[in-house]
Write a structure and sequence with these properties.
290 residues; alpha+beta; ten-stranded antiparallel sheet; 10 strands; 17% helix; globular
């Protein structure tokens, strides 16, 4: 059973995260950069000459890892799903650096024994001088952990969700197709998410999937790739915010088609479909850029 008070005061501590150029390149490869080896705009994210970091890499810096698996959480970790991610960027990420991060559980909402629970988490990332670099917020669904409020005597309001897409947005202003290589989850997990759901067929079946699925933050990185291409000319320092809802599982080997609509200056809404399944897999996307 989930322990509300333990989770809301979970002792994450301050996490010191050192990443090198190799880590920066590996992350970008896991998000599909370099698929076209002749595209020099992509090459700068995966080649040590003139290397730059994908801004979405901030979403994996200073994470507490697979902490839901720790016995004290009381969470059925195999059934936790990443529902939304919202990343705000205040400074460009260096290609290599040492950062510090503080994590906290901001919301723990009980939807009832049959409907599970919803958790909101926030992480702030600072550089070695103490300046705020990024703030990453996420919403996760604890599918088998509803009903805890009867014992705890309390729970939080549900964390705020991303606004829905316009009812009739019209034809997309731009479209970007990005293939996911079959080994993508095995590559991406080397950037700090070793959850066996993305590598072990047996664990995937226990969680209700036919085969290992791609990481939510891996597809988040692919969304950053699409926005950088469509809106920022692959200039990472221009991205200010990236947010998305994960609406369906994504599998390695699929191809994603991103649809982007420009709104007022410096803002775009987007979604993405898995082409082969004609399935909307990313929704409610928001990108803000200079």
């Amino acid at each position: 059973m989930v322990d509300y008070h333990a989770l809301k005061s979970w002792p994450f501590g301050t996490i010191k995260h050192r990443y090198e150029a190799r880590d920066t390149m590996l992350y970008a490869l896991g998000c599909g950069m370099g698929h076209d080896p002749m595209d020099r705009r992509q090459l700068r994210f995966v080649y040590d000459q003139g290397l730059v970091a994908m801004p979405s890499m901030a979403a994996v810096i200073g994470t507490p890892g697979s902490w839901w698996r720790l016995p004290g959480t009381g969470v059925a970790w195999e059934h936790v799903l990443h529902a939304e991610q919202d990343l705000r960027l205040y400074r460009p990420l260096p290609a290599a650096a040492t950062m510090t991060a503080g994590n906290r559980v901001t919301h723990l909402h009980d939807r009832g024994r049959e409907r599970g629970a919803v958790a909101g988490l926030t992480r702030e990332i600072h550089d070695s001088a103490g300046a705020l670099v990024a703030r990453a917020s996420r919403i996760e669904i604890l599918r088998l952990d509803g009903g805890f409020s009867a014992q705890a005597g309390t729970h939080d309001e549900a964390p705020p969700r991303l606004p829905g897409m316009p009812a009739d947005p019209g034809p997309a202003d731009k479209q970007v197709c990005l293939p996911i290589i079959p080994q993508a989850a095995l590559v991406y997990r080397l950037s700090g998410d070793p959850n066996p759901l993305h590598a072990d067929p047996d664990v995937a079946r226990i969680a209700g999937f036919a085969r290992p699925i791609f990481h939510g933050l891996g597809s988040f990185g692919m969304a950053a790739h699409a926005v950088l291409r469509a809106c920022c000319n692959y200039e990472p320092e221009r991205l200010r915010r990236l947010a998305v809802r994960f609406s369906a599982p994504i599998y390695p080997g699929e191809t994603l088609r991103f649809h982007l609509w420009h709104e007022r200056g410096g803002t775009a809404r987007f979604c993405a479909d898995a082409i082969d399944r004609s399935t909307r897999v990313l929704d409610r996307g928001i990108a803000e850029f200079s």
